[in-house]
Amino acid sequence: MRSPLTWLFLFLLSTHNLYSQGNPDFDAAKNRPDFQKLYVQTDREIYFLGDTIWLSAYLLDAKTHIPVKNDQNLHVDLIDSTGTIVKSEIFPVCNGFGEGNIPIADSVLTGNFVFRAYTNYLRNFGDDSYFYKSLPIERTKNSFEIEDDAPDENNRSEVEPLVRFFPEGGILLEHTPNIIGVKITGKNGESINTNGVVLNEDKKTVARFETNYKGLGKFDFYPNSGEKYTVVLNAFPRLKVAFWEPEEEGIKLQLYNNSEDLLHVGILSNSKNYLREKYTLACMNRGEVIFYKKVKPSQNDFSVKIEKTKFGAGINRLVLLNEDLNPVSERLYFNNHVETNSIRVALQDQVYSNRSLVNFKLIPDEKFLSDSVRLSVAVVNENSLNAFGESQTMLSQLYLDAELIGRIESPADYFNDEPEISSEQKLDLLMLTHGWSSYFWNKIEDSDEKDFKYPLTAGFTIEGYVTNLWNKKRVGNSEVLLMVQNDSLFTSWETTDEEGRFVFQHINLADSAAITLQARKSDESENTRVTLEPLTTISAAFNPNIFKQYSERNKIPLELYRQNYYASMAEKEFEPEKDVIMIDVVEVTANAPEQEEVKFSQIYSEPDIMIKPKEGDFMANYLEDFLLEKAPAFFGNNMPMSLLGGSAKFSFIVYLDGILWTNEFNPILPPISVSNIDRVDIIDTHNPTGMALLGSRGSGGAVFIYTKRGAPDEVREKHLKGVIKQKINGFSKYREFYSPIYTAENRNSEKPDYRTTLYWNPSVKLYNGEANISFFTSDDIARYKVLVEGITTTGTVCFGEMNFEVTPEAEN
């Protein structure tokens, strides 16, 4: 049975020339499920108890890196070393962008954590499609505690390494010059740089190697026929590692990247049997074939020269297929010509004093001036970043982490040139040692959208059922009204099915929202009961083995510990009673407070008419009489006197304590004594609020009746059947980042200011090609980094960085 890749190329070769460039039109590529990449920028990488994690999320199309056009829920978890989710939050992502914050207040949130983010839809692609990062959270410590926690270097036991070898092209051929990739890590996943030798059966050295970057290296090896080999590491002489056994015959790919413009793709074989066949060399980028070429090797070491401009940006999958179009060898190649928008951070100065104003501009590359851009900007103490170098960036996430299965140590650093090793050499080592089988797009090829279990979710689902109050039977075809009240009002109507069930989907619940559900049916309006099913959000399971992969060794700088300790001491000295509860005899004399005005679920700013009963009004026999007397202009046109006691069909609607009032006389006013009424608000027919908030039902005006807060519940419940009120936790609470503003009046304030993050803005947009940023420095004397990341609407990664220093002697 042929693989999906085989059928793909069969179709491709039957409809195209022998050499093709671009994006061939074939059904196999179109039928792949939509895949998405997720990146979450946090303001920094090291936190202490009492801090807040500020985050900005980007949900992008996996192929184009263009922000997705739909809304989704973003799940964010903090996971400890036992694999336990100790904190879980949900944030909304709208048109590809989301933002939020996670306060760190719980004392259990200390240690090294894995920060995990995902959407429900990404669960269809497995754990490897999620976003991960290592996040240490510490408590405030003094110098003695820091010394006690420091590991004893002299007594630390030897770390037993894990040694893995990767023959280029996936096969080791005898009597052939092979290139072997090597990767050495500790069992905790940390890279180990060392060297070693390959010994034959006579204990003679036949090859030498060393790892020169994050435990990665490569070496040339020429194995003999039928011979077995052993590897010995010089730093671990007692460790013996078995080596690959060479194949008697085969064919494979091998790259020679020794030209600036051309990539030499070698096709190596140690058998004439393989040289008699014709092969197809194809290249895929993000799941699509971008070019292919038929080749017939004429010698054991045959090469094909390919212009580097023909490769797609980022990871390219080179596949060698035989005449039956079955893959026989594969190799990943990284095309480092990735177009990016370099944001220039134009600072006025490089040195600032404490509590001084900092202004700077963000200016993109000239060729991106017309593009719409969304940026996240953080200004942080440089000690709060990973002490071992850059950890993750949007560039590394989109082009490495999201496309390779498994952990990559400090992936952002692969894009930086160093004196000893270039970025191109680093990336080639990664492609060689991570293995083509770890390419995530291989997994996408085998995915079938018909098998997906997890739909795209946005907002929350509120569901339940309606029953008869007396016989408990389900009530079908009953109209159910949902009202969500937090910062604004949302209303929606649904009808129960034959089983009495109702479902409201994609409901936005900001933080803790008060919801009201009311069921009504003309013949059962006073005899129904609404049952609300619990709002459940099930987190994705977590594999504890992933913790070992993604929990990096984050050495917290001693200076950061000290800054945090001094900041804590300064705050306690300024506000000593902050963490102390003092109890003493207190005598209080005050006037009784005025009773708080009852608002219940008020959904409008100001009514057209407000009626508050006075003492003399409580003698009114009927509510209708009372209202007609107080507002004759409104009720005189809507409530004829001859119908006050009958079944009038009035054009206005009535709400009792925020709940739509209905009964069989729809909508005669509820029979409530005027003595139980706090006030009555009226929205007149000419007020657009009626239509805007209440729809066509409110076109004739609306009457809002509020009972007194002290009235017994049965006063309202007697007239509000089929109603349920409940508070539900929705999206995580949103708050804006606070940054103080210093003036001549408060600059010398004794209140301490030791912010580690000076500025955070998750949503900066460029106007006329630039953006202006301003903030104030704190009391810390430190070096700071300005970190800028973002994406254009066309999918181009944006980034920028700048350093500055804060000293007490700097001139303003």
Radius of gyration, taken over Cα atoms and rounded to an integer in Å: 34 Å
Major β-sheet annotation: 8 strands, mixed
Oligomer: single chain
CATH class of the domain at 36-152: Mainly Beta
Terminal-residue CA separation: 75 Å
Approximately how much helix is present in the residues?
10-25%
Percentage beta strand: 35-45%
Please give the count of helices: 13
Broad shape = globular
- In CATH terms, the superfamily of the domain at 36-152 is Macroglobulin (MG2) domain
Cross-sheet strand order for the largest sheet: 2-4-7-6-5-8-9-3
CATH topology of the domain at 36-152: Immunoglobulin-like
What CATH architecture of the domain at 36-152 would you give?
Sandwich
β-strand number: 44
Structural class: mainly beta
Low-confidence stretches: 10-30, 153-157, 592-598, 640-648, 711-715
